[in-house]
Amino acid sequence: MTHGMVSAPQPEAVEAGLDILQAGGNVVDAAVGAALVQTAVDPQMCGIAGFGSMHLYLADGDVHTCIDFHGRAPLATTPDMWEDLIVRECDDGFGFVLKGEVNEIGYQSMTTPLTIKAFDEALSRFGSRSLAEMLAPAIEYCEGGFPVRPGVHGFWTRGAEAGRIARIRGLTDDPATAKIYTKADGSIRGVGEMLRNPDMARTYRRIAEHGVEDFYSGEIGKQIDADMRANGGLITLEDLASCETETVDPLWTDYRGHRVATNQPPGGGLMIVLMLNILENFDLAAMGHNSADYIATVSEAMKIATVDKDARMGDPRFFDIPFAELMSKDYAKAMAERIKRGEKTSVPRMNPGGNDSKETTHICVADRSGNCVTMTHSLGSSSGTVTDGLGFMYNNCMMVFDPRPGHTGSLAPGKARFSALSPTIVFKGDKPFFLVGSPGGTTITMGNLQAILNVVDFNMTAQEAVMAPRFTATSDTIEVNNRIFRSTERALQARGYPTQRHAFSHMIPIVQGIRIVDGKLDGGSDPAGDGMAAQV
Asked: Of 32, 161, 208, 253, which has the maximum CB count within 10 A?
């Protein structure tokens, strides 16, 4: 048995990961097996036709690397194809509302699907079990079903928000999707009702039997290609056959005597590095956790990183990112001096209105030897589209590209859009101390940052760190959850900060974390989700 811990927003995924560890699998096996269960029991948060970022540290094998599997725009993409459809840019700068929602739902909203390829590669290179074995728990949930959890149902019933579609359309607009997710009378299942997906089970069994290449160049790939051609989709068999993951070294920085490793662009780790470098110039602990001084200071670091993200971070294949400057302690110190002078950073937006969809999921796995995996994977907010008979839903990551040619995140064939996915590992000395990650659109980096600050600056446990009251600033407005004191909010407003109070006491991002202290594990699962952290 491998003694380890799993943290995830779904109890089913946690249990599956623990079962794999108990059976002698390693942390990579457990992470992939649990993630595949997530695709079955949280099928709009993630799926095999999605994207993500996997951060692995394997002390036993002297491995420290990141597998990037961000989806890429199909080869048929053109830079100006949606330029005339722009309605507005989302307030948080992560996506645009277009006429007809063509980038948000349906057959043109998808980037290349890389999740199942990444899972197979991780197992082949670093696991001790096969993909076929790791698919088995997910197949059981597809066939036997799972009771709809509050988090799943809450996503299904989310209404239209400032131009974004009501999410129920992602279950009902497409007939093949409706066949899975609606009952005979056209209604959706309620909390506790069983959802089964035998088509997805058959697809998973076929992949288990014929290998992952069946998805990209075999019979499954041909079914995908035919469906796309019949419905005006952009993805072709050529896209499927040519898409690849990337293996890259992590980015590093130092923070208060700790070494912090995170992922490379097009993931959001560079924002984590920049924000930590800025905040190292302040005595945050002396300010007091979630005081007005603390929130104002951290929010300014968030806004600076957001402006730099919008202007200077993108897909490194297509954009020359100034890594040296953005990772420089001198640059961070100059930004900190701006904050100390009382300067407020403004975050520019085009016709602002509405917020980014924040649907994604995360898995953390660690063992007592210090081997660990932290992985965020997603469907964006899901396209609502299923190829009839295949069962899985496609991503809708074309939504977050900039439809204006000539910008950092503009459309281009083969390009990945910068995302906030930022699975991060904090080291104490040469040993992993805290691993963290979360779903939540542009708020991912902000949630991960605060969890790191909570552990390092305020000596919180993993559970305390992920459940502490949070705020975010991805625009000129500081958003706070309902557990931030109103007196603190009034103090921020008195300093000239616009604020937005949310009704939720626990809200996205749904942060997951595991600490490793003297070989002992303590985990945390954000109460904003349905999940837990547990160990064997």
From this structure: 32
Per the residue annotation, which of 112, 253, 345, 360 is the catalytic one?
360
Q: What is the DSSP letter of 128?
A: S
- Within the chain, what is the greatest distance between any pair of CA atoms? 63
CB burial class (10 A; 0-12, 13-18, 19+) of residue 346?
exposed
CA separation for the pair 299, 489 (Å, rounded): 13
Q: Measure the CA angle with vertex 463, ends 135 and 360; round to 5°.
A: 40
345 is catalytic: no
Amino acid 6 reads V
The pLDDT tens digits for 349-400 are 765 544 545 568 999 999 999 999 999 999 998 999 999 999 999 999 999 9
Distances 363 to 32, 96, 217, 423 between C-alpha atoms, Å: 9, 28, 29, 9
Q: Determine how many CB atoms are found less than 10 A away from the CB of residue 509.
A: 30
The conformation of residue 249, written as its DSSP 8-state character, comes to: P
Beta bridge partners of 362: 376
Q: What is the pLDDT of residues 157-188, one digit of tens each?
A: 876 554 467 888 989 999 999 999 999 999 99
